[in-house]
């Protein structure tokens, strides 16, 4: 039996697997015997010894054996079959709510049975509900299980017994052959990785003396062996993508400084050291003949937009167009205003494209993009549409990239592809990404961090307060606005429904107008037309409104330096990264700023932890690490919808310490494309194309 046969033998090779069972297994992503072997147990039961009934405690799970002393039907709120089982050490009740006449006859007094279940406290003392059981014969020795019993992740219509039988069959195939060791022996010895076949065997049928706590936590050497190889496959696939991108070539954007120098003179502030460093890294990338793939992380307000503007100027100086894309019309419009203010005095034309642009205006913009007279184009995902054609796109800047699906980002890159050349890509995010995710999800990107805030920014003080103290909060708003400051009031709802969120915001705005008749109060939510939203934001920015009631649509990119108080209702319903983004809307000027997190009691343990982190720190990276710990990588990256980052065995949080080793091994194995491809194929197989971002 060789690797090819195990990786390619369909599960239908196993006895008893017909079309119906095959479909159920496919729901678990099991197509081949190798898939089945990599479908690992969630936990284990110990059925290797018989426990004395007298020694049982509530919560114990185990095998007992004894004689039925009584079996009666008890009539309570629910009819049940109640059996009293006795061994030499004590008595316990077995209770069945679903039973047949035949079952009652099988459990008559004097019958000897062996059963398995969880002990709990019931009406008659210690009880086991619906135990698995079988009759045993006193005259014959019935052996107990030789290894721990695995409990597998399953799907409707597929029980544990069937899954165990199937894995027994797959393990027999494994005994006659093997899964090929793809990690070279010298590296396995260096990192003390046990043999793959031994690890797989061990995890499906652990011996009696296995450390169950270690297995449950996922830290057993056998689990780590598989997690290591899976992380390695993901890493190699990202390196392969990067290599592929580099092979395609890109325009060499050599800057002559004619726009950049004037831009720097016109800027009303000097760049921070971090902005200068990151700009130099980008400039060096753009001058290379292969595509830049750089992720710039900068906390809220760190000045990423200026860095992006410098990159677009280099593209224009090199004779190419640049596209700047943002996830919402509010943010895209803000970028358009910033870029127009900065670049038009230099004699450059900035085009604008969003969904709301219709008719002749839209046509005019499409024409200047296609004929190249617009050197810089700012827009939303409208830039992806087929009718948008660039004259010569050399640089794509994507802001808040985790909000776009993989395919959308690819589509924009494809627009600039000509003669086997792709545009450079600069990806920006104000959501700090934990180092563990950067090393795994973004291994195909170079990462830069703007880790310095511009001078004059004041830290935001965060207060956690119960919504029972709402009148005090309203008074705080009155005081702040009385001193000439502006305030945000953000409404959140647990329901996904945008309609309900908007309704909540409308009700809140009305209540606040009654409580604060002297203030000018505006309302903004997701169901308004883009022009309405833009109008309200413009009035708020021009200080024509004192208080802005909003849903979370204001999360990204709104810049009002005079706003110094942010109230967030029900903050326990939002992720940490989102709270951090919202809080970043204040503290943009030199006056002391506050963020009030107004929660609704009682708070869950996780809710308390999240709000405590927000109170303790404004460090986006610490917040991101905590967010990852509490919510997991799929939600932090916003990649649930793209199918990205789904691991069979590895867990990014638990196995973070393996990533440095994985990176080292990947760089050694990347030189052998055949071996790399075999590892990628084994673990990613059907999903390998997922990561082409």
TrEMBL record:
SUPFAM superfamilies: Nucleic acid-binding proteins (SSF50249), P-loop containing nucleoside triphosphate hydrolases (SSF52540). Residues 483-629 form the Helicase C-terminal domain. Gene3D superfamilies: 5' to 3' exonuclease, C-terminal subdomain, Nucleic acid-binding proteins, P-loop containing nucleotide triphosphate hydrolases. It catalyses: Couples ATP hydrolysis with the unwinding of duplex DNA by translocating in the 3'-5' direction; ATP + H2O = ADP + phosphate + H(+). PROSITE patterns: HELICASE_ATP_BIND_1 (PS51192), HELICASE_CTER (PS51194). Its EC number is 5.6.2.4. Residues 285-450 form the Helicase ATP-binding domain. Keywords: ATP-binding, DNA damage, DNA recombination, DNA repair, DNA-binding, Helicase, Hydrolase, Isomerase, Nucleotide-binding. The keyword DNA repair applies. The keyword Magnesium does not apply. It holds the Pfam family RecG_dom3_C. It is an enzyme of class 5 (isomerase). InterPro entries: ATP-dep_DNA_helicase_RecG, DEAD/DEAH_box_helicase_dom, Helicase_ATP-bd, Helicase_C-like, NA-bd_OB-fold, P-loop_NTPase, RecG/Mfd, RecG_dom3_C. GO terms for molecular function: DNA helicase activity; hydrolase activity. Plays a critical role in recombination and DNA repair. Helps process Holliday junction intermediates to mature products by catalyzing branch migration. Has replication fork regression activity, unwinds stalled or blocked replication forks to make a HJ that can be resolved. Has a DNA unwinding activity characteristic of a DNA helicase with 3'-5' polarity. PANTHER family: ATP-DEPENDENT DNA HELICASE HOMOLOG RECG, CHLOROPLASTIC. Belongs to the helicase family. RecG subfamily. This is ATP-dependent DNA helicase RecG. It comes from Amphritea pacifica.
